[in-house]
Amino acid sequence: FPSQARAGIISTVEVLKVMEAFVNEPNYTVWSDLSCNLGILSTLLSHTDFYEEIQVFVKDVFSPIGERLGWDPKPGEGHLDALLRGLVLGKLGKAGHKATLEEARRRFKDHVEGKQILSADLRSPVYVTVLKHGDSSTLETMLKLHKQADMQEEKNRIERVLGTISQPELIQKVLTFALSEEVRPQDTVSVIGGVAGGSKQGRKAAWNFVRDNWEELYNRYQGGFLISRLIKV
């Protein structure tokens, strides 16, 4: 259905009306699809005056399910409920939903201070939320968490979300970090991709960064699948 909208067969407004009808939907797969398509639309609208309005729409569509799920697991819930919680809270947090942002900041602070460690399924949504609405100290804290992480899984989780940061000078810092020795060569593409997908400013910065560092990147990945992945992102 959304692919028909992208092809111009039906109007985007019609698609958004259909999306609104899913507010009581409990299925993870449906929400994942909605999230993906709203992400594409949000990216397209980031160059227009409608960007803020689509963020309001995201908050309106996702807040009822966010309130139902809450932040903590309920007795007897399955794996898909945990996935859905992470998806929904990340979407709300990134869109600037006030209550989600406040709770994410509180939980992030407790996590960093070692008071209450975040469960694995809540880390990405919390990291995305605090970074999107964060500053240089938020980025420094995230880079510190990356350095301290024992598990490669946690390092990768952090690398994928660093590009969510909004300020131009911090975006540059993330891109420089992508080529540093702190990041495994095979994971550099994830950091650059995260920047490219993080914001309008990030897309432009990532494009310029790849052009400026093309020789180094090409020599690093020539002949491998990572160079095509880099070009794709």
From TrEMBL:
Record keywords: Aminopeptidase, Hydrolase, Protease
GO BP: peptide catabolic process; proteolysis
A GO molecular function held by the record: zinc ion binding
Organism lineage string: Eukaryota, Metazoa, Chordata, Craniata, Vertebrata
GO CC annotation, single: extracellular space
Annotated InterPro entries: ERAP1-like_C_dom, Peptidase_M1_aminopeptidases
ERAP1-like C-terminal domain sequence ranges: 5-232
Protein name according to UniProt: PSA aminopeptidase
Pfam families xrefs: ERAP1_C
Family statement drawn from the similarity comment of this UniProt entry: Belongs to the peptidase M1 family.
